[in-house]
UniProtKB/TrEMBL annotation:
Protein name: Adenosylmethionine-8-amino-7-oxononanoate aminotransferase
Gene: bioA
One annotated GO molecular function: dethiobiotin synthase activity
Keywords recorded for this protein, A-Z: Aminotransferase, Biotin biosynthesis, Cytoplasm, Pyridoxal phosphate, S-adenosyl-L-methionine, Transferase
Binding of substrate, residues: W54, Y146, K267, G301, R392
SUPFAM superfamilies (UniProt xref): PLP-dependent transferases (SSF53383)
Keyword Disulfide bond included in the entry's annotation: no
Modified residue annotations for N6-(pyridoxal phosphate)lysine: K267
Length: 425
């Protein structure tokens, strides 16, 4: 028995993995080391992390700059309660982050992951109206959206197999279609009609990740935000996936004229090193809570809120993100993806291929055969793993979402594997 199967067997006895049907799960691959775009298993096999480890890793694994800063911080201050106390890394991160965001964001509220960043954003909006004695309780969201796995975040996410067991316990949300040329005027008039009931609109800007990398145009989102502003509906940009360069600009909302009241950030925030969540808001929101009345306080907080190690990792990640090479890398990946898109667009197995910034998604033609579809995802997943590439298809959608340091040769290796899969799978 190799050490790899040994660890996988020990894992199987004691661990319950996320998003995994444990009954038919293949042995989990033990990873012992990460470096740049690669992770290495116990037997020394290396894998290109083409999905940035669930969309978090933007600068590559075990980045030396982040590692140095985090390990220095570890012997200075590992953690301190964040109510009644503060620390330099949290303040500095807020000072650096706020001016980077499009529009004018004034305050940072820390949590520890994307779902909780969303929970806080929703609570800010609902309580905003409550604190002004103008309660509004309806929330607007996109059909098929994904905003996380806690109850509030699930409620504003599309109903799916993920939420089936809980649907009756999720609060009511008004789901709208993704905007396009045909439906935009209907959507904007629907928004003004709902004005008096709707507290806020939460959206993933430009691209719905978990829904299958569904993309829509900035100009229509802009019109939705304009309609919300006119209807006094607060807006929440969930940039948990799109933030920190993913869509070609530092934030997806940079492509808009109208800006949201609130941003949710996580995933790439720490460069994918450790957990941290951020919810930012404008003074307009903040001031609705600023009061002598205790009831108007935002009663929310997590044990590891603003963890100094996570804040330092985020500061180090920002150093790298803002270096000119990183933006050049992002533009390089964008151009490479666009070239690949053109090469495969007319392949008979390609139903559609779409791209936003560093994300490219290829929808496999399934000919409406559901039996084929259910096997296809697992077959493709294993096919790429065998070639040393981590790609996790969402159903029949294969997407690449790489760390920005990926080389042209590594991208070509992934493209070639996908081209071969189009012939063989
Ligand atoms: C991943 C994701 C979340 C949830 O973040 P977690 O850290 O996994 O809780 C929320 N919104 C979007 C858009 C995401 O992609």
């Amino acid at each position: 028995m190799s050490s790899q199967t040994n660890l996988a067997a020990r894992d199987r006895k004691v661990i319950w993995h996320p998003y995994t049907q444990m009954k038919d799960a293949l042995p989990h691959i033990p990873i012992v080391r990460g470096e740049g775009v690669h992770v290495f298993d116990e037997d020394g096999k290396k894998y290109i992390d083409a999905v940035s480890s669930w969309w978090v890793n933007i600068h590559g694994h075990s980045h030396p700059h982040i590692a140095k800063k985090v390990s220095e911080q570890l012997s200075i201050l590992e953690h301190v309660i964040f109510a009644g106390f503060t620390h330099e890394p949290a303040v500095l991160l807020a000072e650096r982050l706020l001016p980077l965001l499009p529009g004018k964001q004034d305050k940072v509220f820390y949590t520890d992951n994307g779902s909780t960043a969303v929970e806080v954003a929703l609570k800010m909006c609902l309580q905003y109206w409550n604190n002004q004695d103008k309660p509004k309780t309806k929330i607007l969201a996109f059909k098929n959206a994904y905003h996380g796995d806690t109850f509030g975040a699930m409620s504003v996410s599309g109903r799916s197999i993920f939420t089936d067991a809980f649907n009756s316990m999720l609060f009511d949300v008004e789901f709208i279609d993704l905007p396009n040329a045909e439906n935009i005027s209907r959507l904007t008039s629907h928004i003004s009609y709902l004005s008096s009931e709707v507290a806020c609109f939460i959206f993933e800007p430009l691209i719905l990740g978990s829904a299958g990398m569904l993309m829509y145009e900035a100009k229509y989102l802009d019109q939705l935000l304009e309609a919300c502003k006119n209807a006094e509906i607060l807006t929440i940009a969930d940039e948990v996936m799109t933030g920190f360069g993913r869509t070609g600009t530092y934030f997806a909302c940079e492509k808009l004229q109208n800006q949201p009241d609130i941003f949710c950030l996580s995933k790439g925030l720490t460069g994918g090193t450790m957990p941290l969540g951020v919810t930012t808001c404008t003074n307009k929101i903040f001031e609705a809570f600023f009061s002598d009345d205790k009831v108007k306080t935002l009663y929310h907080g997590h044990s590891f809120t603003a963890n100094p190690l996570s804040c330092v990792a985020s500061l180090a990640s920002l150093d790298i993100l803002l270096a000119p090479e990183t933006l050049q890398n992002i533009k390089r990946i964008e151009a490479k993806h666009a070239d690949f898109r053109n090469q495969i667009a007319h392949h008979k197995k390609v139903k559609t291929v779409r791209q936003t910034g560093t994300i490219i998604a290829i929808e496999w033609e399934t000919g409406n055969k559901t039996s084929y579809l259910s096997n296809l995802r697992n077959t493709l997943y294993q096919y790429f793993l065998d070639k040393g590439i981590i790609l996790r298809p969402l159903g029949n959608i294969v997407y690449i979402l790489p760390p920005y340091i990926i080389s042209d040769a590594e991208l070509d290796y992934i493209y070639d594997a996908i081209k071969l899969a189009l012939e063989e799978v």
